Amino acid sequence: MAESAQLTGPGDPERSGSPAGRRRATILDVAAAAGVSRQTVTRAVNDMPGISAETRQRVLEAATALAYRPSRFGRGLVTGGDPQLGLVVSDLRNPYSPELAAAVVRRAADEGWSVSLVDIGLAGSADRLLRSLQAQVDVVVGYLGEWALGWERRSGATPLILLDAGEGSEHPGVNLDPAAAIEDLAAHLVAVGTRRPVVLDASAPHETSGRGLAMMAALERRGLAPELVHASASTPEHASAVAAQVIRRAARPDAILAFNDLMALGVLSACRHAGLHVPDDIRVAGVDGLTIGTLVAPTLTTLAVDFDEVARHTLELAVALGDGDTDAGLQRVVSHRLVLRESA
Amino acid sequence: MAESAQLTGPGDPERSGSPAGRRRATILDVAAAAGVSRQTVTRAVNDMPGISAETRQRVLEAATALAYRPSRFGRGLVTGGDPQLGLVVSDLRNPYSPELAAAVVRRAADEGWSVSLVDIGLAGSADRLLRSLQAQVDVVVGYLGEWALGWERRSGATPLILLDAGEGSEHPGVNLDPAAAIEDLAAHLVAVGTRRPVVLDASAPHETSGRGLAMMAALERRGLAPELVHASASTPEHASAVAAQVIRRAARPDAILAFNDLMALGVLSACRHAGLHVPDDIRVAGVDGLTIGTLVAPTLTTLAVDFDEVARHTLELAVALGDGDTDAGLQRVVSHRLVLRESA
DNA sequence: CTGAAAGCGCTTACAG
DNA sequence: CTGAAAGCGCTTACAG
Q1: Which pLDDT does position B252 carry in this prediction?
Q2: Between the CA of residue B320 and those of A30, B12, B325, B330, B331, what are the distances in Å?
Q3: Which one is predicted more confidently, B64 or B151?
Q4: Same domain, A205 and A88
Q5: A19-73: per-residue pLDDT in tens?
Q6: Any domain includes A188
């Protein structure tokens, strides 16, 4: 019985590699130990019918004794395995990433996909991470910000879906469109009597973001003369510093539209330290719709992204690309939505 | 040339299964299309030496034409593949989860592990998710809260590491110990003149949490007579409601120690709506050390968890269990640390 | 520089 | 209820 397992079995400790000096037990080792064939081990381990209770137990005991765990590769090769999604974000510490990831993970679970999460933010090893990820998943989804460009080229054979890659991209992916929500926000601000709005953009002075331009235009279209200021980076700290300057002026603004929620939080902080009441003295709004905006006081008015819808489109694209479709409908758009809360 | 591929090749559309009606191309299909052997395809696809430039290009073109992507199972079976961690959390929307996940993902990347993320919070499918995850990873890490108990039993063959499973657990894992940090917080509050502290615990009235008990004891030990109140759930909303009642009393508390940061945020919100200034009128502290506490105004004093250290221990345990070690040192402890910010 | 052989660990028919 | 055979898709030696 089980002769072949005898030949290559654990009685041969040299042919190892693992730190423990002992190679992992295979189905053949268990079969040998229990005195049955490998098929019987499969039946026992996978709770399949057609095996006696005694045999099952004997096999299970042998498996436990040998710390046997089926190889996911061996099994996957024959069963096909669950499809796997690789989700790459540029910085998991940015609250945007986990909210996106949460939505994708949920949707993926519903569709029977697993998702591997990778944070590319750590410098240096980006290429290695990508290679390793591509070898493990069926489709890569990237929410990459500035990293996106390089990746479009490197993507190689594994299909790549880009999230919010910007207007220029022709890559399959999901793009965000804040235009309508910005109009709604401008209309709201005008309706409540805003006179001197400021748009706090993120990018460098000479390259105002599309989002910032749209905010300016929407306000101007309603007869206001908004001022445009820039933070050197889209962090709460930078935003707070700029806001602190702006609200110290004689002609104090009565509204600040921030590039995103994180920056809006920085603005709120600056207002508090300046002794200003939000929204009575000044109104503040952000973009993204992060959960964090509901946890602060005052709660943050924002242009929210429907992450669940982004996730829905993402999985649809993943399924299509995974099946080898390279055809139409591979670019989706999700619109922001105005969510009025306390801050504006 | 490539006879065998011809026999089972794509010229046989019936034997399919995929929605597109065409099975995925294998290395043999590419070999046939390029008129070479499968080894040559391997060399071209994997950028290996020992192949002429022309051949490489021809193979690559054939691969592209057939949308060939190597099977991760076929490859993994022979190369072994990267080790894979399955991280299961009870709710990704709770800011604690992503911070933990971020730390684990980073540490894992450093160690060459991939991590698959699963949110068990969605009712019903928990068992299916577990099965599917166990089949895909080498080690499962669970940050499960109340779910932990059931899982210890179900864990089956795949090693399971439990995070913050509580004092009762003898399972391999990383536990958190706030005791020392609670002492530091109590000492600080006394030093700045706190007289009437309130401990805002999460659990039901009849079962005060260990954390809440420790807070009470630490304050009492310093001559104070803290009051203990409970929120029915550890959400900002519930905490806010309870806090609103407490601070309305005649003998208003001058400090509230919340069960965690999220609840502390709710307390901050209640204070703001009541017109109280933090920390001048009342001090507020939480537990966890979430990033969100640095983004609110006032910034939140907290007992912080060093997520990076939790992640470090977790990976060490994962490596040990993955190698089949079942010995000593499989329980680790990480202590909280007092982080003084504006709110206290 | 290229190819024929062997084998990674498992499951799925098929015989008994 | 149990086992012998075939094969999933790939890479790693080994020959030429």
Answers
A1: 94
A2: 22, 47, 5, 8, 12
A3: B64
A4: no
A5: 444 678 899 999 999 999 999 999 998 888 888 888 999 999 999 888 888 999 9
A6: yes
- Residue B123: pLDDT over 70: no
Question: What is this structure's pTM?
Answer: 0.86
User: CA end-to-end span of chain B, whole Å?
Assistant: 78
More confident site: A189 or A111:
A189
CATH assignment at residue A231: 3.40.50.2300
Q: Answer whether B109 touches A (CB < 8 Å).
A: yes
In a domain, A95, yes or no: yes
Q: Answer for B18: CB within 7 Å of strand D.
A: no
Residue B113 lies in domain: 84-177+307-334
Q: Which residue has the tokens 């061996």?
A: A74
Query: Does A119 score more than 60 pLDDT?
Result: yes
Q: Is the peptide bond between A298 and the residue preceding it cis, with omega within 30 degrees of 0?
A: yes
Which chain D nucleotides are covered by protein, judged by CB under 7 A?
Answer: 1-5, 7-13
Residues 210 to 269 of A: which have CB under 8 A from any B CB?
Answer: 236, 262, 265-266, 268-269
Cα angle B132, B135, B137 (rounded to 5 degrees) comes to: 105
Q: Which residue has the higher pLDDT, B169 or B32?
A: B32
CA distance A52 to chain B (A): 20
The two three-digit tokens of residue B168, written as one number: 């009762």
**Per-chain mean pLDDT for chain A:** 86
Residues 46-105 of B with CB under 8 A from A: 63, 67-77, 81-82, 84, 92-93, 95, 97-99, 101-102, 105
Question: B166 and B312: one domain?
Answer: yes
Residue the block writes with tokens 């294998």: B26
Across the interface, whether the CB atoms of B269 and A95 are under 8 A apart is answered no
